[in-house]
Amino acid sequence: MTSTAGFPAPSRTDDQAVRERLLAVRQEVGKAVVGQDAAVSGLLVALLCGGHVLMEGVPGTAKTLLVRTLAASLSVETRRVQFTPDLMPGDITGSLVIDSTAGELSFREGPIFTNLLLADEINRTPPKTQSALLEAMEEGQVSADGVTRPLPRPFLVAATQNPVEFEGTYPLPEAQLDRFLLKVVLPIPPRDDEIQILTRHAEGFDPRDVAGAGVEPVASGADLEAGQAAVKRVQVSPEVATYIVDIARATRQSPSLSLGVSPRGATALLRAARAWAWLSGRDFVTPDDVKALAQAALVHRLGLRPEAELEGVDVAQVLASAIGSVPVPR
Predict the structure, then answer these.
(1) Could you write out the DSSP letters of every residue in 133-200?
(2) pLDDT tens digit string along 34-81?
(3) Global pTM?
(4) Cα separation of 142 and 94, whole Å?
(5) Higher-pLDDT residue of 314, 245
(6) Helix H segments across the chain?
């Protein structure tokens, strides 16, 4: 079997080895983070799609620890930026500074030049600074002083926001929300998991010392690149593609929504479902793959009508109803 470029395509055995290493990341992250398996899976899917993730959860649900542990288990670089009202675009992308030795202006890279960028509380910074991420998220590059600089590969923005505190925040505009492949919600863990968390801390666990928790690299950036190539070979039947389009169109016809899923949103769901199918050991997408990723891929792209908001309508329930109204292909 050969690829379109004339080079041998990776064998099924190679794909399986890469898949096993990436799936081992879940277990490795579990050494430091308890009860957030869905968020770990969402981040892996996003990495395999070359997408970005919006993480929502109240303070103390291990958002920062999760990203740091994921980076450690993948042997990639991570940086964290605390978004504040006085943060400037150059604080993220980098800026021109005077080189004291040469006496010339040179570009000093900002924290965005990394593999995993944790954008903490992204909705606490003004839109001008939020928009500084747009080019990086969409194009994988930063333009400054007329020069375009590519970002490292892989590159993922994991942005967090607090769902219960709105004072002093700047809600993300729809255009930027649409740039996130997935939105994952980190809930308060179940009672048994919370007991396990406290037990770990009582035994000396330090969330600032990921290596001390026994977390080791089990996969690499090369594995992610191989996984991304494998995901692109996952087959999507016309019936499944039609199913995704019908779900998107059902949201546009919902009386509770002022904004339905765009074609970009439908494409995001397709990409995420292919990655999930590959992680599940299949080379084809099923309707169950689509349903498994539909909430995470679509819910942040929807806008409620004002009257629906006043009535306390839950956008996730509206999406669930729209999905339920579409016949599942056999």
Answers:
(1) HHHHHHHSEEEETTEEEEPPSS-EEEEEE-SS--TT--PPPHHHHTT-SEEEE-PPPPHHHHHHHHHH
(2) 878 888 899 999 999 989 999 988 777 788 888 889 988 988 888 988
(3) 0.85
(4) 9
(5) 245
(6) 12-29, 37-49, 63-74, 89-93, 127-130, 132-139, 174-177, 191-202, 221-231, 238-252, 263-279, 287-298, 306-310, 315-324
